[in-house]
Amino acid sequence: MTLQVGLTGSIGMGKSTTAAMFADLGCAVWDADAAVHRLYAKGGAAVAPIAAAFPGAVVEGVVSRPALRQIIAEDPAALRRIEAIVHPLVARDRTDFVAETTAGIVVLDIPLLFETGADKWLDATVTVTVDPETQRQRVLERGTMTAAQCDAILAQQLPDAEKRARADFVIVTDTLEHARAQVHSVVETLKKRPANA
pLDDT value at position 89? Predict the structure, then answer.
């Protein structure tokens, strides 16, 4: 039986780096954001239904994220319609991944893990965290968003303290060595835990 472990954390907390550490230890890692990219790409399963609902959102056979953002900005109710199309497809992608893996532990990288209630069906949850100053510095160093955009994203996410309180495991990503040691400890603990039947 495969153990399904949810990995989450707010923007800039080091989730992708931590996911790679789990992979290095033999865990299969599924990434929700990567699944959405696959669904939005040419030939992806979300392209036709999104085109049917929002014709302007598909450009040259690919779902345009900027176009979706514009649609949502003009009509906030559109977000629910988009989610109704995309979420079941993402869930199917995840289910297929878990079914096909031979790894004993599957780490599911889900940004909105607690917000979507995924913790109810997972065997365990892991939250990555770091101090707010380091978090903010990491996000702004990427050069992909302004401080105001960073604040807007953080305002939409569950507070870090609540994620830490709800998680089975918390990994502090202050240094790579510290994070790697904690990931190793979590994997060793998980290996002794039975999966949900």
Answer: 96
